[in-house]
């Protein structure tokens, strides 16, 4: 059982509101890409930790130097100058999706998709060219560039770095164009391979099977799905190659005639021109991958979105500096909104997510967040709590059918095992008293209010004797004896001092439903809820005082965190015209609340808080996970996580056709 100065549990999460209000919350709390500066920080610092560096799946990647690379993800353009360890999102005009990116050198680049953007100053500024679109871009040099769309019989061509484009018609659809220099290029099509020696003005067709990637006019490969083949005569003839079983690839790149990589539902690599392909073991959290690029035989980058389900897409960027034998994860956390978060110390925290059945965890203060998919795509995990660094529970319900779900971990959140309670319906919150004891609250209009406890690690669950028939939205325990529940009876709070065997109801002056509760010690705590409801106690919850959080009308207090007798945090969002997501803190017991909101979009609600001290903790929600640290705290640089290793393919003589 973990113990710190703030109490056993460091968690104050959302907690589902009444049905009508919950539906309104889900409507108004969706993510919005645009960011707006809210209240200026007045204490400590917020750092956005996850999802990092983007909340979108990655469609295109490009290595420019061993340390500099680019990626595009939906509307984002991402740039790294340290080999992928850290990324910056580039300001750009417009809002259309981007699918591909290419750079001729460190200054001249093009990003395109449903629109086209170009830069001549290394991404400091981008200029939009409307009406030019496609799925793939190739820069032969700083001036000559091509854009292709596999659905179209032709291509766009630019001779001034992307500022102006002309359309060129071809006899068949063009999937991609590659250039070896400013004159020599190949175009892949269903009819075969087109060759140009004048920079794409004129083309000669070599009939045969289509290719995927060429390193010269003669040497090329087709690697797609579970098929691989190679040509040494420009596409006239092709020799089949074997790929590892169960391989399914979407993109291929070669650095030279020997070293190549293909990515998709797995990664395969060759060091002998495809005479042998070997698989690189990858975890499901890094697959599938849609695009791969190589600077040379050692430096490779791949991007994807782990789209195992339509609602659980995650951004993925992987890099390798040893030819693809080892890969490092360069992305962090889940793009799914956070519903609840718990922290036991400055290093260890866990978050449960909306949709996708996902749970994130960190063991390094949030420098890295690793994601585990514990359930199906329509599973909303509304609550999470930990007894210690290894054992805890997460609960939630199905988005459509509202049946409840219970999961338990005994390895710190690396894996979660589903548990079953026949009464589980619309579970909204969970409190963990010790490694064997947990209490969940929930219920619906058909079953009524449900409050259930296990004392045997979740093998069996039993009803609690609670004196009011409320739908409780949050349950919080300070230790294994003292706990509180808040919920649908509006002003009433119930408390226990014997681990949940008996409960006592207490009235509060709140005019609306309370949905979040948290205590710093046996006496001091806050509870918050609908329409700015906020109450404070200094006697363990026997009596409560109404406070004014000074938030706009129709704005809700969705999370509270009591960190000491006089200090605490609140967070939330609402649906009114003047409502914004907010985080506030108090240093005088709640007489005044000071705005201190991370930089998020106007609809990025904050339903979760977890603080381990007055200044160190997390706020999370629809805008991601943000860590708060004291002023002057130095955040360590993220370190790469090695995720895969493969042995080198066996050496063979120089490959033949």
Summarize this entry quickly:
The protein is mainly β and 657 residues long. It has 1 helix and 58 strands.
Can you offer a commentary on this structure?
It is a single chain. This protein is mostly beta strands and 657 residues long. Helix content is 2%, strand content 42%. The protein is built from one helix and 58 strands. The strands form 14 sheets. The protein has a five-stranded antiparallel beta sheet with strand order 1-31-32-33-34, with no helix packed on it. A five-stranded antiparallel beta sheet has the order 27-28-29-30-58, with no helix packed on it. Strands 2-57-56-55 form a four-stranded antiparallel beta sheet, with no helix packed on it. The radius of gyration is 28 Å and the shape is elongated. Residues 1-42, 308-312 and 644-657 have low confidence and may be disordered.
Low-confidence stretches: 1-42, 308-312, 644-657
Helix percent band:
under 10%
Number of strands: 58
Q: Decide which structural class fits the backbone.
A: mainly beta
The strands making up the biggest β-sheet line up spatially as: 1-31-32-33-34
Task: Compute the CA-based radius of gyration.
Answer: 28 Å
Question: Average pLDDT value?
Answer: 89
- What percentage of amino acids are in beta strands? 35-45%
End-to-end Cα distance: 65 Å
Overall geometric form: elongated
Query: How many helices does DSSP assign?
Result: 1
Biggest sheet character:
5 strands, antiparallel
